[in-house]
Give the backbone structure.
Amino acid sequence: MFMRALRLSNCLLVLAVFYAGDSTATAKSQDTSIQQLFGKVTDAESGLPITGVQVFYSGTTIGDVTDQGGIFELPNPPVTQIIVVFSMLGYEVLSVAVNARTRQSGELNIALKTSIIGLDGVIVSADRDTIWEQNLKRFEDVLFSNTSFGKSCWIDNAFSVILNYDTETEILSATASEPLIIINPKLGYRVTLHDFSLGSRGARYHWEGAPQFEELDSDGGKKTKGWYKNRRKAYYGSARHLLKSFIDADLKKSGFYVYYVFDPGHMNKDFPVAELISTELDTLEISERTIIPTGQDGLFLFQPHRTLYVQYGKEAVAREFDSVRAAPRYYPRYYRTPRTRVQTVAPLQLSWIDITVGSLFVDYHGNLLVEGAGFPIKTYGYMAWERLGELLPFDYNPDPDD
């Protein structure tokens, strides 16, 4: 079964894994066997209906809230294979994988189990408040980075964040006593992270959760147009844009140059991006044929070598990136290109993607589908620097007319 939520792993300044879900062969032609998903949510012990349960397609803006009879209705799934999330305070979050093509009925009845919410995050004392605020700042730095979009985000219910930081090991862990609500005014989204957790050590981090997107109130004018512009900016050059470019067989047209790296990390396993600067790596330019259709609607198999070196040249390197702690040392303004083997000024966004499994499933929109536990992709460099502030719904597609 594909992963129940977004799983993201970062190393150094690292990005990573994308949304669960699958799409049809074209973004506009949907041909699923069910036209609507509906059902009833009840308490697993009493059997009584539960009112107010959030029911949504994970990673999208599509959702509903159960009524007094525990009933919910969702429209036709935006993609063939998707995760449906059921979330209610006081109950365990439940995620269900739904394949709209093979499923015989749109009815889905769910029984939720009660959960015990830890209170470690709500202890109040003067000393604790000072420490908590310091740790919250660390947490926000990890989650949002210092991108222009990330710096504009805020946590609407920060009081719910449960934090633990070890000063000796620099290990930070975070959970939340309720779904974590993020406001992103630059992209125009309210993002609720259900079943959220985060772990980091230094500049390395990973987080998990089921993201639910809601549009912020729009004025239909200048602010809305700004959202459309910023969403396109967040999308272009991203890992998802890269995978979509593989599917569309237009890597270079999209601005990407991608290379296999055959012996990564032999000099510097903690910071392999440094090798792109200081050594002449054994590389080979990658082909779009690395990704192939599976025969299932909108599902592709990505079979790269273990490590990829990615250059993106259609967007300038943001000036904020230069202020990142590791950037001056591991991302200088001069670098060696595998094609020329000479040092040139670096106008390109450089990323290093370490793939820990032999093959990966990707949907038509470029979203990575993950099976089981673990983090199959770790990305260093520019893609990793852009984090939750650049997070988009998995069914988002840039409209050039916006």
Q: What stands out?
A: Residues 1-32, 325-336, 341-345 have pLDDT under 50 and may be disordered. The domain at 36-112 is CATH 2.60.40.1120 (Immunoglobulin-like). The two ends are 36 Å apart (CA to CA). The CA atoms of residues 225 and 371 lie 37 Å apart.
